[in-house]
What we know:
Elements: E1 4-6, H1 12-17, H2 19-29, E2 33-37, H3 43-53, E3 56-61, H4 71-80, E4 84-87, H5 98-116, E5 121-125, E6 133-134, E7 137-138, H6 139-145, E8 152-156, H7 157-162, H8 167-174, E9 178-183, H9 205-211, E10 216-219, H10 228-242
Amino acid sequence: MNSISVQLYSVRNEMAIDIAATLRRVADIGYRSAEAYGFVDRVHEYREARRVSGLNISSGHASLLEASDPVATFEAAEAVGITTVIEPGLGGDKWESRESVEGLAARLNELAVRGADYGLRIGYHNHWWELAEIEGTPALEIFAAALDERVILEVDTYWAEVGGVSAAALLERLGSRVTHIHVKDGPLTRDNKAQLPAGAGQAPVEAILAAAPEAVRVVEFDDYDGDVFEGIATSLGYLQKCA
Length: 243
């Protein structure tokens, strides 16, 4: 069965109150893995929550490209047990020229070398704006072509579709570079509140999963108009049936 995880940003309101209780509830739903966010300033809480919940937290989001010094992030990841640190994204103005995009790739390449000293893989997560075209090619693909082979990608498949690119075709083109995918559904608009559990909207989720058979499936909601725990439970059930 493919590995299934959940981005804890989805339950950020509950995380702000009690990390341990939130992770226990996520584990009770049936998840065995989770993807961290905001872990750099909450290392001890994350470590305890991981212990009491039994969840594996091998990947996490943290700002790297605009960090003055990434060492604190690397040390926090190492302490929590995270092995893949993923830049959650930079704004649209960074993706408007080839020079800027290739400059971001060069910076991430440097960070990957430094991260390796801590046993870490470094990656990037997209939104819709990275799919805007530069000279006829999506900026994200220009970025990928300039990355060192050790840098991974976490493709947010919903935002790829919103950006006007077939997520399944994108995944096929990027190939093994993609080790994680964010899976969510909805009407394929920028309205976060309209997002739905996997299989309940217009995203071609089955084709997406087939295009990245080895990638970790990470359930995520940028926002959710309902009980988010019910939402992540529904997505988990759908993905388990697709496995």
